[in-house]
Amino acid sequence: MTKLSVNINKIATLRNSRGGNVPNLLKVAQDIERFGAQGITIHPRPDERHIRYQDARDLKNIVKTEYNIEGNPVKSFMDLVLQVKPTQVTLVPDADDAITSNAGWDTITHHSFLKEVIQEFQQNGIRTSIFIDTDLRLMEAAAKTGTDRIELYTEHFASEFEKGNKNAVKPYTEAAILAHKLGLGINAGHDLSLQNIQFFKENIPNLAEVSIGHALISESLYLGLENVVNMYLNKLQ
Ligand SMILES: CC(=O)[C@@H](O)[C@H](O)COP(=O)(O)O
Ligand SMILES: NCC(=O)COP(=O)(O)O
């Protein structure tokens, strides 16, 4: 079975756009768990444009399933994660000004840095995962960092799948086979959606977990729209 961890960044984006507490991020996390999701993911960015560092602390007492915090392990992020102690930390090499995550780690160039931070998280009882592309040399280097898992960066697969190119899943399949042989757990995420998730799952052996946010929240809005418009119409009769 592959676990679904719902990324709630976009709920925080909506909340922050009005300055109040609607929608209530903590309640949304609780409800997502009640609906059956097996994890909650957040990706606090240094500018706190969606998830705030305080949200990460508040969610610690709320999330009863698997709590996954993603981000670039700069000092403020490391301090936050070591304080909150989530189930899992996913290391992502984000530039401060990136609109969204747009690359995996070069695990060869950054090998000693990754090894050091991974050790620190693991010594504090936090499972680690490295956001990574499908290059097999990078996968081998990832294993040497001592990380528990990798997260396959699926943006390329998702965009190619949308164009009808199903072969785009092949490098992900090969990367997953190697990762499993190397003893790594396999996560995946970025632009996974209702359109592509089943095909992806069917082609990735030993897929432990997917984290999905942007599409899942957009789909939820769209699939809920008719219901809510009708609820308003009923009240206006
Ligand atoms: C690590 C990753 O794949 C990203 O998708 C990220 O978690 C989403 O971040 P934003 O919501 O800021 O785009
Ligand atoms: N790790 C990926 C994630 O949490 C969500 O990515 P996306 O679905 O918002 O692209």
Write the layout of secondary structure elements.
Layout: E1 3-7, H1 9-16, H2 25-34, E2 39-42, H3 53-60, E3 66-71, H4 75-84, E4 88-91, H5 111-123, E5 127-132, H6 136-144, E6 149-153, H7 155-162, H8 170-181, E7 185-189, H9 197-203, E8 207-212, H10 214-235
Parallel strand pairs: 1-2, 1-8, 2-3, 3-4, 4-5, 5-6, 6-7, 7-8
Helix pairs in contact: 3-4, 6-8
Bound molecules: 1-deoxy-D-xylulose-5-phosphate (DXP) and the ligand NCC(=O)COP(=O)(O)O.
Defining key terms:
binds ligand LD2JLWAY, 237 residues, 10 helices, alpha/beta, TIM Barrel, binds 1-deoxy-D-xylulose-5-phosphate, 8-stranded parallel barrel, 17% strand, globular
Summarize this, please?
With 237 residues, the chain is of the alpha/beta class.
Q: How would you portray this structure in words?
A:
The protein has helices at 9-16, 25-34, 53-60, 75-84, 111-123, 136-144, 155-162, 170-181, 197-203, 214-235; strands at 3-7, 39-42, 66-71, 88-91, 127-132, 149-153, 185-189, 207-212. With 237 residues, it is an alpha/beta fold. The chain has a single domain, classed as TIM Barrel (Alpha-Beta Barrel). It has an 8-stranded parallel beta barrel, surrounded by 6 helices. Helix 3 (53-60) runs parallel beside helix 4. It starts with a strand and ends with a helix. Bound molecules: 1-deoxy-D-xylulose-5-phosphate (DXP) and ligand LD2JLWAY. Belongs to the PNP synthase family.
